[in-house]
Known about the structure:
Number of helices: 2
Oligomer: single chain
Shape: globular
Amino acid sequence: MVKQPQGNGQTGTDPDALIDELAESTPEAVQKMRSSTRLSIRAKVTVEPASLSHRDGRKLQGVTGDISAGGTQILVPRPLGIGDVFQLSFDREMIDLPPVYALCLRGRQVRPDAFEAGLRFLEHVTLPDQGGRESRSLL
C-alpha cells in the first residue's frame, strides 16, 4: 500500500493505490495472496464505521466464517461498502482480540437477509492460540 505525506506531518493512504488494490481483489487473486493459516471459527462480531464522524450508534452484528492474521470473512444482515474501512469487535470469549480496523475488499449476497464480506486487517493481528483446535462454533 502506498503512503503519501499529509500537511500534518503524518502519512496517509494513496487513494489510487487503494482503488488498484480493490480492482485486483478477484476471488482467484485473494486466494493466491493468502499466506497465513485460516481458522474456521464462528464467533460474534460487531461492525461499525471506522470514521467517528460516520458512527450514528447503529452497529451491525454478524458472525465470522473464518479468520487469519491478515483478515476475516464475515456474514452480516446488510451489505458493507466495498472500499470502506470498519472497526471490528470480536466476542472476546471466542476470539481474544482487541477491536481492529479492516478494509472491506469484497462482498456478495448469499441470502435475502445475509451478506458475506471479506475484510483485510489494516494492522498486524496475532491470533490467540486455539489449543490445536482448527474449528470452534457458536452454533
